[in-house]
Amino acid sequence: MEKKALQKKINIFFGVITLVFLILITRVAYLQLIQTEHLQTLARENTLRLISIAAPRGEIFDRNGTKVVGNRPLFTVSLVNLGQTREELEPVVLRLAGILDRTPEELWEAIENQSPRRYEPIRLAKDVSLEIVTRLEEEQVDDDLRSVVIDFEPMREYPFGTSLAHVLGYIREIQPDQLAEFAADGYLMGDVFGQAGLENTMEKMLRGTPGARQVEVDAFGRPVPSSLGVIINPIPGNDLTLTIDFEVQQAAEEALAWAVEKAQDEKHGDCLAASAVVIDVRTGEILALASFPAYDPGIFAGDLSAEQARALMTAADRPFYNRAIQSAYPPGSTFKMVVAAAALETGQIDRQFTVFDPGYFYHQQRYSCLGAHGRVNVVRGIQVSCNTFFWTVGLRTGPEQLALFARGLGLGEKTGVELPGEAAGVLPTAEYKRQLVQAELDRRFGPQFEAVEERYRVQIAAAGGDRRDQLRREKEREIARIQAQYERYAWDLTWRDYDTLNMSVGQGLNNYTPIQLANYAATIANGGQLYQPFLVSRVTGPDGRIISEFGPRLRHRVSISAEHLATIREGMQLVTKPGGTAYGSFFDFPVPVAGKTGTAEVTGRDDHGLFIGFAPYEAPEIAFAVVVEHGGSGSKAAAPVARKILDAYFGLLPEDGEEPVAGGGPGASPSTPGMAQPPTPDPGPATVPEPEPSPEPEPVVPDVPWPIPVPSG
């Protein structure tokens, strides 16, 4: 019985073994005969990895087809992430440091700052020389360097150096905060990303679609030298065509550099920067947008260390600051057309209204004008920049109407240009001033009140009887003393007449950007149409197909009659005629120009020089604004810059070997040695040259020192 039971168990055991073998044989047969091709594919794919291939960014052209941003190929050296520990990477980093002429610390920083997926390359060096590439290829036979990849990448190329830097911007490797925001769009650490200018705001248009290639790895997951080639070709980004006229842009940049150097030679030591904007008055197209000093965007396209980048970013002259759209300045007398428009349109004055200017204005105290202009109407007031006239008219019109018309002409708000960081400027109102003064009062006196409260709180709590009453009286006296000082300044919480006087001549809290001033001039020139300035006219795909086109965008029409605008334009034209404040720069210019000089006072420093205007006078095409920081008067510092810009726009620049055009060539100042001088005007009341404009008068201030913080340029 026991023998039969044992035999039964043995039979079951052999049956199970037989079944297992049958299953194994069946499975092997299935894998060998049926799944062979599939398994071979899996095995082959297990030895392959996809490596991303950067796509060329779209190129950028000016309105005439001049390429202002392109691409060129370069060698890069990367380390493929195989999940190695720091100890395993140590010999690789040491050898690469010697080959690449870098410190190990720099390479470790690059490795630690990037966190790519496994098998994604960590870029260690860009724009590597052919000699270094050759040496790396020779040494890659060693296992230590088998994870090092040498590749081609498109490098951003800015062929004109600093020209258009603030418009174009620059690219760098994507920053951690940007990666977190745009990871869903397929960005990886190590990708490039526009950091400023159009490179930033048009990033999605300019960025191409990355490609990929297969790389074979060995049994340990390390890349082997052989590559199976590209399987997905990268698609270049879209090209941009700008509204910029590069010839006008270059003329503006050269003129700004010249103006700063000239101002420094004339002992304006604070003059370090300037800016200019040129706009087509018929469309809002920006023909030039220049800020000096500038930087070379190409330095970021190469291999720039963090220390070098920080040094550039913190330079004292702030070359990365786009003053054309980010700096707000007191407009000085360039604001007077706003005052004229508000007064005319509200009926406070008409064309025949006159003010007698004896050389000063009296309102609670005496203020000096730029000269004794005699009987002045609105047209002559603009021509000679008569402060007495505009103080009188500004008080009649009132700050609310001045602010309303300034806002209508685009001042004190962003224009909407396609560049990052645009400032809104400041159009002062009674409420704005109240908040500003209140913040200063709180800053100055708040800690004093708190200190008294805290000091006596402890003492009163510890005292008793008569001593406590005495301490309370002492506390009240100290608070009353501080309160008296507070009240001495708190009267300035209210808008006063001196604020209106300041506003009427573009001083006080007024602060506007050059692009706002240019657009304001364009609106006067074109009959009252406020356009949104723009830089990009067309986006074209890599196949040449037009993806987007952009045209004029009318924001609104200003509420100023055609008659009143014509009166203002007439006064602006006379600014460049005999007796006008800009006659010295335009006495021999063949195209009629209308403009307005401005000299904006800056407490404790040299004045800003401004000039805005348009041309031709009869059929306006372009408007412009020029600001020379701390460069002195607008007639001396800014108007000559505008002359040089207009020379370029109207084709009056001399060709090589030619004699300069009348007046000394490209906007030469009449004071330039060897150049033509302005003719002496015939004597007579209408043509006697006015005195050289001086700074606007000091702001009317309270009878005690009061440091109200004013936004500065």
Q: Treating each run of at least 4 consecutive H or I residues as one helix, how many helices?
A: 25
Unreliable residue stretches: 659-713
Residue-averaged pLDDT: 84
Number of strands: 23
What separation lies between the terminal Cα atoms?
111 Å
Question: What overall geometry do the principal axes of the alpha carbons give?
Answer: extended
Name the CATH superfamily assignment of the largest domain. DD-peptidase/beta-lactamase superfamily
Provide the CATH architecture of the largest domain: 3-Layer(aba) Sandwich
Largest sheet: 7 strands, mixed
Q: Kindly name the structural category.
A: alpha+beta
Give the SSE layout.
Blueprint: H1 2-34, H2 36-46, E1 48-53, E2 60-61, E3 67-80, H3 86-100, H4 104-113, E4 121-126, H5 130-139, E5 148-157, H6 165-168, E6 171-173, H7 176-182, E7 192-194, H8 197-201, H9 203-206, E8 211-217, E9 223-232, E10 239-242, H10 246-265, E11 274-280, E12 286-292, H11 298-301, H12 306-313, H13 323-326, H14 336-345, E13 355-357, E14 360-362, E15 366-368, E16 374-376, H15 378-384, H16 387-397, H17 399-408, H18 430-462, H19 466-490, H20 497-504, H21 514-525, E17 529-531, E18 536-540, E19 546-549, E20 554-557, H22 562-575, H23 583-586, E21 594-602, E22 605-615, E23 622-628, H24 634-637, H25 639-649
Parallel strand pairs: 2-10
Antiparallel strand pairs: 1-8, 2-3, 3-4, 3-5, 6-7, 8-9, 10-18, 11-12, 11-23, 13-16, 14-15, 17-20, 18-19, 21-22, 22-23
Helix pairs in contact: 10-25, 14-16, 14-17, 15-22, 16-20, 18-19
